[in-house]
Amino acid sequence: MSNEALGRSMSGGAYGRPPAQYDPLLIDVAQGTPTGEYLRRYWHPIAGSNEVTTNPQKVRVLGEDLILFRDKGGRVGLLYERCMHRGTSLYYGRVEDCGIRCCYHGWLFDTAGNCLEQPCEPENGRNREVARQPWYPLEERYGLVFAYMGPLDRKPVLPRYDNLEDLASDEFIETETTGFGGYVAPVAEPAVPYHWLQAWENVIDPFHVQVLHTAFSGTQFKAEFLQMPKVEWTAIDGGVIYNAYRSLPDGRLLDRCNYAILPNIAATPKTDLTPGRSQVITWHVPIDDKTMRVISAARVRQKGYFTEYTQHNGKLWTELTEEERQRYPGDFEAQFGQGRINLHSDEHLVNSDRGIALLRRMMKQQIKIVREGGDPVNVAFAEKDATIKIVSGNFFSASAAE
Ligand code: FES
Ligand SMILES: [Fe+2]
Q: What confidence score (pLDDT) does residue 310 get?
């Protein structure tokens, strides 16, 4: 029987719908855009320390093509790709004791872009002191290399996260730089093929854990998540937290707290419900406006923190066929399914999306602050102010109270 015969309304057809659009304030990463400038006021991890060698490599961050290398003195450098002399790529350069030498005419640049030699010029380049290959500052911490790509006079201190500090003698930091949640990006190009915000917003969306990770796809984490949680979201200084409460069959109350930290960071509690504070920090680093890299550092006593996500109908994500990815989708499928860039005008945010609305509002407030000449949240200029307190985790209390 036709819809009409069934008495269903004939309005709302797909024909004639308005064109779908994204909100540029949530998407743009390029220099000069309000959001690109805001993102450039923070340090972003761009690689694992052990990935940066004397072999120069191309990296793309915030839509910029750059060359990353470690000179033979152990210093890491991030330079604009095109040589300032005549524009060939420093990808073909040779790393030396104090920098990288361009292959074409041999100009030598140190990790801060200073030109040390111009071998074809009289006296090795009489004016070489004024030559500067565009460069970005780098720092290493937690086994990662962090870049600051904003105005140099506003460069903040590299933040510390208190859940990764003060390690006991048997603890160490494990890193993950090529994928997330079981999804493995190709090693040659460790890119997740969609906009970074789609993954970051997922952090503050506790209801998808019940649906996607449990009811729809079978238990990907723990059976406890099948219970629909009672949820509160709270805007705190550094971002948004949720508390998702579940009364467990043994009478205990589980408070699962997740934390989305501005601008693109998460401190997620363990998905196997190990009690205690989150022991991981995850960055969703824009490569450009259609790709990102997920980079994480976890405080561990043994390796393997990032290989626990194997629950896709008993298989690894990499073992799934296309049809199995349809039957047992996970975070990658749900987020990639939103498109390379989510089209916000198509969305219908409801009650259970309050965390996402809150996060977007906060992000736009910070973009405005930067636009008006201020410094955004989670930026500090003194080491004593540079530690971000992690409040998320899996917390159990003895008796369930409403
Ligand atoms: S193009 Fe690099 S030294 Fe000439
Ligand atoms: Fe998820």
A: 67
